[in-house]
Design a protein that fits this description.
55 residues, 0% strand
């Protein structure tokens, strides 16, 4: 049984592509999480401080 180098290279490239895709998804999720956190804090401040103090 021989080792198919070209198939191994192809599989390695696929794995690298999947890794890149997962890293992009992770970055998007982190950005989404940060945006939710910022929005949540902004909404909480509206309820915590009277409107006159924010102006």
């Amino acid at each position: 049984m021989g080792f198919d180098v070209s198939r191994a290279v192809s599989q390695a490239r696929k794995l690298n592509h999947y890794t890149d895709s997962l890293q992009d998804i992770k970055k998007s999720m982190e950005t989404y999480k940060e945006n939710i956190n910022i929005q949540w804090q902004a909404q909480e401040l509206k309820h915590y401080y009277p409107a006159t103090m924010l102006a």
